[in-house]
């Protein structure tokens, strides 16, 4: 039995329609556990890092090293980035924003200036102000 080109296309599209086109989102806990060390220090440990390593069926060679559990590296990086480690457990109220930098950034975005052009314009404005003050 030989398939004609239109039937072949329909059959191919039908087979491809059954394929999964995306991965499910990875869910992991963003919680931290407070642990006390023997020296009395209190440490925050991501709960995801307490789980066993992720399995890797492809890298079973002699140089194989187990990887971190999903979400562990993200949580550890977040701990390194925060100003106060306690913020990952209980956040703080944010203060007022500085309006000038936000306004400048919005103006640059709206006008479409790049940084060099913006610096050049600011230098021109400053030189014209200096020239007026000198007169």
Automatic annotation (TrEMBL):
PROSITE patterns: PROKAR_LIPOPROTEIN (PS51257). This is Lipoprotein. It comes from Pseudomonas fluorescens.
């Amino acid at each position: 039995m030989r398939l004609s080109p239109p039937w072949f296309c329909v059959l191919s599209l039908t087979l491809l329609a059954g394929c999964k086109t995306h991965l499910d989102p990875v869910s992991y806990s963003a919680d931290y556990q407070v642990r006390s060390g023997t020296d009395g220090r209190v440490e925050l440990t991501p709960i995801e890092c307490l789980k066993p390593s992720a399995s890797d069926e492809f890298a079973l060679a002699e140089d194989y090293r187990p990887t971190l559990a999903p979400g562990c590296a993200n949580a550890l990086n977040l701990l390194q980035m925060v100003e106060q480690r306690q913020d990952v457990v209980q956040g703080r109220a944010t203060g007022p924003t500085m309006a000038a930098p936000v306004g400048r950034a919005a103006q640059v975005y709206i006008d479409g200036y790049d940084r060099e052009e913006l610096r050049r314009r600011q230098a021109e404005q400053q030189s014209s102000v200096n020239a007026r003050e000198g007169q």
